[in-house]
Fold this protein.
Amino acid sequence: MTETTAAPSQRADMVRNRRLLLDAATAAFAECGVDVSMGEIAQRAGLAKGTVFRHFASKEDLLAAIMLQLLDRLTGTADRLVDADDAAAALHEFMTVGVEVLAADRAFCEVIGRPSLQLSQVRSAIERLGETAETLTARAREQGAIRGDVTGMDIVLLLGGIHQTAVPLLAAQPQAWRRYLELTFDGLRATNAPRLPHPPGRRLPAADSD
Amino acid sequence: MTETTAAPSQRADMVRNRRLLLDAATAAFAECGVDVSMGEIAQRAGLAKGTVFRHFASKEDLLAAIMLQLLDRLTGTADRLVDADDAAAALHEFMTVGVEVLAADRAFCEVIGRPSLQLSQVRSAIERLGETAETLTARAREQGAIRGDVTGMDIVLLLGGIHQTAVPLLAAQPQAWRRYLELTFDGLRATNAPRLPHPPGRRLPAADSD
DNA sequence: GCGAAAGATGACCGCCCGGTCATGTTGACC
DNA sequence: GGTCAACATGACCGGGCGGTCATCTTTCGC
């Protein structure tokens, strides 16, 4: 929030450079993953490395900003879908968009898929996304379209899993995730299956060490 | 193959050191992922770094050896299950073991989950695993226990997806993958669901560039 | 036991990374 | 258009990485 045009009285070129930087970083992280170097990002933006560190104190800060922007977009999508008549179709649409976003962004996958999430802002943004997805899921449950023991956080976590399933095929069949999305959705529809084992997660664990 | 006791006429300490190295590398990759340094592995094995490079010409070679050993274990598990009476139970058992192995090995997850697999031996070992899983899957299909449009490679790929789904919870709930294994299996059981979109993969794409 | 060959060692190399800082440049305001 | 603070720059730093190699140590056939 309060990102697009930050604090007042900023020089025009700084605002412009910030845009260049954010765009370049978004593309670089998406294509190359979190291990892309700050030098590469600077080069893509047409800036010097030092300038990048003037806008973001560390690589982690920059990565967090980009990830938050992505997560906010996803949360917005979910928000826009909560009023749909067919809740199951809305849920399906949300999952489609979610996996599409993941499939197009390597860094996003890597950050989401870390065993322990260092970036606390990202962690809570995911939890917020889980809550928004919960309202979507609850409506689909009430309409009897999906099983009763699936939560919003389940849905969010499943996005990463569905995409991951198709990752080994990504280069040859970029749309393969659709196959596994449908397979998973059929699992969600199993309304009279035995109750799922293991309680669902709500909050994500913080980073411990490593 | 022909790994345990390589070529004849090797010095006794070399054989011993090779064991120490393989054990240390297996543990280090499992705990720390592929980014663990060769120095760290050498230290864990109680060897000098140079010795590690005498046994394996590059880090990639060492990683490939460890991954192949893991994949062979999994293929062995699948092989042992093909004769079970209840094919669906056998398939379920195979998937349980597979996800357990993934959950216990960070490097394995990372290698399997790369968009493009550099290590060609690992790639073909996965394809072999897919073929073995196919015999398991075919029997479950014939028994009418699972839907008709799921292949062995689907099963193998799903292992990575199921584990990935639970990764964000791993630190707090190490068994969370069981929840998503059951959910996925319910999807596999949806015998009268509409046919899955997008054709299944059989072979994995080679690395292109990146 | 002894000699020679195979193996083990760790200092060393070049590379690239995230991050810093003295210096040069630019834009906003009067 | 002059002034100055804010901003941009890229050479530079310390550190860790994969990998090498001259040197020392161990094993094994005799």
